[in-house]
Design a protein that fits this description.
Low-confidence stretches: none
Number of domains: 3
Structural class: alpha+beta
Helix content: 40-55%
Mean pLDDT: 87
Number of strands: 7
Largest sheet: 5 strands, mixed
CATH architecture of the largest domain: Orthogonal Bundle
Number of helices: 16
Radius of gyration: 25 Å
Distance between the termini: 64 Å
Length: 409
C-alpha cells in the first residue's frame, strides 16, 4: 500500500502492474486512489464504523477531481467519527431513490468503465438534454411505452431522426441494465422491442482515385498538421479520431502502429502495419511534433494535446476540393471498396481493384470476425492476419501513388 501526497499532476500518471494498486494520500489519511491495470482510477475512503473497517467508493477520476475527493473523504470520516456509517447511509438513500434520474446516473456510472470517452459524453448529453427534462423526477417504473414513443417522435419532428435512434439506444440501455442490476421497483423496459423511429441508412459513398488526387492536392492549402493527418488517415484507412490521437510511442521498431484497447472501438488492441508512404507522411510532421508526445499536436495553451479541429478542417477542404458529399469516415469505405475489387474483373467494364480478400480488408479496418473460431480460439487476436494486412496496405499505397503524384487513373 504505497503512501504519497496525491497531486493533480500525479493522479493521471500513476500506473499499476498488478490487477489494481491503491495509493494512499498523506494529506487526508483514509483517502486512496485505486488504479486498475487497465488505467481506471477510482477514489475510495477507508474508515471505522461499528467496530469494523469499512470502505466506500467516492467516484472516478477525472469526473471527480482530487480536491472534491478530499472534501468527500473528510465528510465521510467526520460522519464515521460521529458514530454514523456513511456507506450504509448512502446505500439506504440509493434504495429509497427510484426516480429515472437515479436510474440513469447509476447505469451511466456503471457502464463508464467499459465505454469510450466519446460514447460516454454522447450518452450523458442525450440524458441531460432529452430524458431528464421529460422524466427526471418520475419513478423509473412509471414511464410507459407510449411515453417513449412520443418522446422519440418529438425528436424526429424537430429534424433529428438519427438522434432519435441514438436516444432509443440509450433508453434501452438504461432500462435493460437497470433490470439486470435489480433497480428498485423496476421490472420491465418500456423500450422493449421498439423499432428505431428512423430507418437506418448505410453510406455507400466512396472516393474514386481521381477524387483522392484532387483531395491530395487540395490539402496543400492546409496547415502541416491537417495535411499530414488527413493523408495519414487515407493511407491507413483508420478512424480519424484514432489517427488524431496517435502518439510516437504507439509506433514500434517494426513500423507497426498499436492502437490501445481503451482507444479502439472494439475495446481491444488493434495493430496497423505502416506502409513506406504512411511513414513518409509521419516524417514530414516529425519536425513540428518531434518534441511532443502526440504526432498531430493541437494548438494553444491548455487545449487538447492532439488535433481536435477535424470538423472545421473538413469543411474547408470540402469547399476547396469541390468533391461532393464526402466525409472523413468515407476514407474507410474508399479503402474497402477498392481493396476488395478483383484485380482483373471478368467484365471489362468493371473497375479493377487490389484483389484483397474481404476478411483481410475487414481486419485492416479493425472489424473482428464474427466466428466462434476467432472469438474463442485465436491467440493474440491483435496479430491476426498481420502479414496479410501489411500486404493489403502496401497494395493500397501503390494504388494511390498516381493520386499522390497529382495524376488520375
Amino acid at each position: 500500500m504505497p503512501r504519497m501526497t496525491l497531486t493533480a499532476r500525479s493522479v493521471p500518471a500513476l500506473k499499476s502492474e498488478k490487477k489494481q494498486t491503491e495509493y494512499w494520500d498523506t494529506v487526508v489519511p483514509g483517502l486512496a486512489l485505486r488504479v486498475g491495470q487497465g488505467g481506471t482510477r477510482t477514489y475510495i475512503v477507508r474508515y471505522r464504523a461499528n467496530g469494523k473497517h469499512r470502505r466506500m467508493t467516492l467516484g472516478k477520476h477525472p469526473n471527480l477531481t482530487l480536491a472534491n475527493a478530499r472534501e468527500k473523504a473528510r465528510e465521510a470520516l467526520a460522519e464515521a467519527q460521529g458514530g454514523e456509517d456513511p456507506a450504509l447511509d448512502r446505500q439506504e438513500r440509493r434504495n429509497a431513490d427510484v426516480t429515472f434520474k437515479a436510474l440513469a446516473d447509476e447505469v451511466l456510472e456503471a457502464k463508464a468503465r467499459d465505454t469510450r470517452e466519446r460514447t460516454r459524453k454522447e450518452r450523458r448529453r442525450i440524458v441531460d438534454v432529452d430524458l431528464l427534462p421529460a422524466w427526471g423526477s418520475r419513478p423509473a417504473s412509471s414511464i410507459t411505452r407510449r411515453e417513449v414513443v412520443q418522446l422519440l417522435e418529438r425528436i424526429v419532428d424537430r429534424g433529428a431522426p438519427i438522434s432519435a435512434n441514438r436516444t432509443l439506444e440509450v433508453i434501452r440501455l438504461i432500462f435493460n441494465e437497470g433490470i439486470t442490476r435489480g433497480f428498485p421497483t423496476l421490472e420491465a423496459s418500456p423500450a422493449h422491442r421498439l423499432k428505431p423511429p428512423a430507418p437506418k441508412s448505410s453510406r455507400d459513398r466512396y472516393l474514386t482515385r481521381d477524387e483522392i488526387g484532387f483531395l491530395w492536392k487540395t490539402l496543400e492549402w492546409e496547415s502541416p498538421v491537417v495535411r499530414s493527418l488527413f493523408r495519414f488517415a487515407v493511407l491507413t484507412a483508420q478512424r480519424i479520431g484514432n489517427c488524431a490521437a496517435l502518439q510516437w510511442s504507439d509506433i514500434d521498431d517494426a513500423d507497426i502502429w498499436r492502437i490501445p484497447a481503451e482507444q479502439f472501438k472494439g475495446r481491444r488492441a488493434h495493430l496497423v502495419p505502416l506502409s513506406a508512404e504512411a511513414l513518409a507522411v509521419l516524417e514530414e510532421i516529425r519536425v513540428l511534433s518531434g518534441g511532443m508526445d502526440h504526432v498531430f499536436p493541437g494548438r494553444g495553451v491548455g487545449r487538447t494535446p492532439y488535433f481536435a479541429g477535424t470538423n472545421k478542417a473538413l469543411q474547408r477542404v470540402r469547399e476547396r476540393s469541390e468533391i461532393p458529399s464526402w466525409t472523413l469516415h468515407d476514407f474507410r469505405t474508399t479503402f474497402r471498396t477498392h481493396a476488395t475489387r478483383a484485380k482483373r474483373p471478368k467484365d471489362k467494364r468493371d473497375p479493377a481493384g487490389l484483389g484483397v480478400p474481404p476478411h483481410v480488408a475487414d481486419a485492416v479496418l479493425g472489424h473482428a470476425e464474427g466466428t466462434l473460431g476467432f472469438s474463442h480460439y485465436t491467440a493474440e487476436p491483435e496479430r491476426y492476419l498481420l502479414a496479410e494486412k501489411r500486404e493489403a496496405l502496401r497494395r493500397w499505397a501503390t494504388f494511390l501513388a498516381p493520386a499522390m503524384r497529382g495524376g488520375g487513373q
